[in-house]
Amino acid sequence: MTQTPYDPAREGAQMSFDGRMSYGDYLQIDRILGAQHCLTEAHDEMLFIIQHQTSELWMRLALHELDAARRMLAADRAQEAFKMLARVARIFEQLNSAWDVLRTMTPSDYSRFRDDLGQSSGFQSWQYRLIEYAVGNRNVAMLRPHEHRPDILSRLQAELARPSLYDAALAHVARLGLPVPEAVLARDVAGPWEVQDGVREMWEIVYRDPSRHWQAYELAEKLVDFEDYFRRWRFNHVTTVERVIGFKRGTGGTAGVSYLRRMLEVQLFPELWQVRTTL
Predict the structure, then answer these.
(1) Looking at the domain assignment, is residue 161 inside a domain?
(2) Contact 153, 143 (CB under 8 A)
(3) Which of 119, 135, 194, 255 could form a disulfide with 259 if both were Cys (CB 3.0 to 4.6 A apart)?
(4) Alpha-carbon distance 125 to 95, whole Å?
(5) Interatomic CA distance for residues 88 and 134, integer angstroms
């Protein structure tokens, strides 16, 4: 028996969009789908482009959430910040999954278009650099790849002048009455973070009595959760690069895998990891 084809218009669905905003209009799908310009005939170049473009979109959302989370912490609206930080962690979970797709590209596949990338490299991503700066890894040497773009350089410099996520978190818990060292609260936020025994001791107080310091405890765990996913993302980056190009130098001139492995040693919130040993 032939069934009558389902027509959503019978249930009120809009089917005509002449003069109306459609799904494609709202999301500007034509612009997004028109942004993939392959330089070669290599089949896997499309994968490579989309992998990195979608990563940049997720990073844009991560920056949106990190920006708001810091503002909420500065206003002592911690519960709202917790939701944003949880979302950032899940964004990096999504970014982690994307490496699984890229790893389907073999060394032979990549070699077909790698030379056409010129000096472009992922470490030149200004959004990634903004994320690093926002969460506290403030290496001013990494401003140099962006000096050719004054607009981007100014954004990065403005980020360095702003308290990082960790600075905002510590200032918040200090206002809760916890003994954050005054030197930490008054430090030059543009500089790199230096491990502070006093901060570790403060977190020990929190972790030894979570019920008494629940808000600070929950904030600490949100930070650790984010860094856990962030570190996995870095690790997956290393293994993907090694799988595809081995120990060749990166297209941007970095040492490739060995450079990425050094990044694995960077801790964003070191005292929160140290406290697990000292408890």
Answers:
(1) yes
(2) yes
(3) 255
(4) 15
(5) 12
- Rounded distance, CA 165 to CA 183, Å? 17
H helix intervals, the chain: 23-27, 29-33, 45-74, 78-102, 107-111, 126-135, 150-160, 165-175, 182-185, 197-208, 214-245, 257-264, 270-278
Asked if the structure places residue 95 within a domain, the reply is yes
The Cα 123–Cα 251 span in angstroms is 10
List all residues 6 or more positions away from 150 whose beta carbon is below 8 Å from its beta carbon: none
Domain containing residue 126: 41-278
DSSP assigned state of 189: T
The CATH number covering residue 58 comes to: 1.20.58.480
Q: Residue-wise pLDDT tens for the chain (279 aa)?
A: 567 888 788 887 787 888 888 989 999 999 999 999 999 999 999 999 999 999 999 999 999 999 999 999 999 999 999 999 999 999 999 999 999 999 999 999 999 999 888 888 777 899 999 999 999 999 999 899 999 999 999 999 999 999 999 999 999 999 999 999 999 999 999 999 999 999 999 999 999 999 999 999 999 999 999 999 999 998 888 888 888 877 666 666 665 676 677 767 789 999 999 999 999
19 located within any domain: no
d(CA 146, CA 142): 8
Tell me the pTM.
0.90
Rg (CA), the chain: 23
In a domain, 117, yes or no: yes
Which residues, 6 or more positions from 32, have their beta carbon under 8 angstroms from its beta carbon?
none
